[in-house]
Design brief:
Layout lengths: L1 E6 L7 H14 L4 E4 L6 E4 L2 E4 H10 L5 H4 L6 H8 L6 H10 L6 E5 L14 H8 L2 E7 L5 H12 L3 E9 L4 H13 L5 E6 L2 H4 L1 E2 H7 L3 E4 L7 E2 L1 E5 L3 H9 L4 E6 L3 H7 L4 E7 L6 H10 L3 E4 L3 H9 L10 H14 L2 H8 L2
Parallel strand pairs: 1-5, 1-6, 2-5, 6-7, 7-8, 12-13, 13-14, 14-15
Antiparallel strand pairs: 3-4, 9-11, 10-15
């Protein structure tokens, strides 16, 4: 069994989506593939036990028969934090090592690191320690926001040493893709970093569902429950006059429009454009005219007692950082890995 660690030194670089896409491709190639998230951050209760929610979804997508204890051996919760700070020995490192050893029948075990390479260090389950303990191989993944993104990859390579096999550059804006592919990759490979894949930034992979937005603002649904799993790619605040709003809204596809409950003019204009939901602040009584049109067009209306600033702040924190829950995102990740990742070079390097 070859442990393959997908790690980065920042949060929300796309580790889980890439890991899932890679695992799906390897399975199609006939390999026996396992998956693990040693340090979970999104508690999900199953019976009396707590697991990581993304790990649970990936187990289902990969149709893994392994127990959840093998896939998500430890989740950091308030309860575990309290117990650890009170000196209780939870045997976390032992649980993780046992979960890894139970998957020795796999060809590859894809292990997804935490938000950065040092998280879990006090518990002995940080990425660097686990790589050493398992003699695993490492792929560093980083999202592209500037040339400084290279620093994390070079730093990880130096810390990991010979177990490092390559890098993936993710979420590259379309207008910078040529620059990254021609200039940045040449620079990095000239200094010993093999770039195994470059993925363009895609709205659908960063989108969140209407349901998730509603949960984030503790909203109440007025209509169109069957549309809650539609994807929202953009947020737009409706605080202008209707004529300006129309030209503004026409330029922004697949959006959630946030406006005051009294702004029926903005609400009606928004529904004439590509709008996935309307979120109303400042009250609970929605215009019957607006509700009727929304039902006819299949546009959910959500009301919240939060003020507009707070509602927008909560929703913006979700954009590009959503938990993997949707099958179509997983399939898109698989397509990207299939077309933009050098699988043959990966297999050559990982088996060395």
């Amino acid at each position: 069994m070859i442990p393959v660690f997908i790690i980065s030194n920042r949060a929300f670089t796309g580790k889980n989506l890439f890991a899932l896409g890679l695992a799906m491709i390897l399975k199609e190639r006939g390999y026996n593939v396992g998956y693990m998230r040693p340090l979970g951050k999104i508690p999900f209760k199953r019976g009396e036990e707590v697991y990581d929610e993304e790990a649970f979804f990936i187990k289902e997508m990969l149709e893994l028969e392994d127990s959840l204890n093998m896939i998500s051996p430890f989740v950091f919760t308030y309860e575990t934090q309290y117990r650890l700070l009170n000196g209780e020995d939870l045997g976390i490192k032992e649980k993780v090592k046992e979960a890894i050893s139970k998957q020795k029948n796999k060809d590859f075990l894809i292990i997804v690191g935490a938000n950065n390479i040092f998280e879990g260090y006090c518990l002995g389950i940080d990425a660097i320690n686990l790589v050493k303990d398992t003699n695993g191989k490492v792929i560093a993944i980083q999202h592209w926001d500037s040339e400084f993104a290279m620093d994390d990859i070079f730093g990880i390579k130096d810390l990991i040493g010979e177990r490092f096999i390559g890098a993936v550059i993710n979420k590259v804006p379309v207008e910078q893709y040529h620059h990254v592919k021609e200039k940045v990759v040449t620079f990095m490979e000239g200094r010993g970093i093999k770039v195994l894949g470059i993925f363009k930034k895609e709205k659908i992979l960063e989108a969140v569902t209407v349901r998730r937005l509603m949960e984030a603002i503790n909203g109440g649904l007025v209509c169109c429950e069957d549309k809650l799993d539609e994807f929202v790619e953009n947020l737009s605040i409706g605080a202008m006059d209707p004529e300006t709003a129309l030209s503004y809204f026409l330029r922004i596809p697949n959006k959630a429009v946030i406006t005051g409950i009294h702004r029926t003019d903005i609400q009606l204009v928004a529904m004439e454009t590509s709008t996935k939901c309307i979120i109303l602040t400042g009250g609970m009584h929605v215009s019957e005219t607006v509700t009727g049109i929304a039902r006819a067009k299949g546009i959910p209306i959500i009301v919240t007692t939060l003020d507009t600033f707070t509602a927008v702040d909560r929703m913006e924190k979700l954009m590009g950082k959503a938990v993997i829950r949707e099958k179509n995102k997983a399939m898109r990740a698989k397509d990207l890995v299939n077309t933009e990742f050098d699988l043959e070079e990966f297999l050559r390097r990982v088996k060395q």
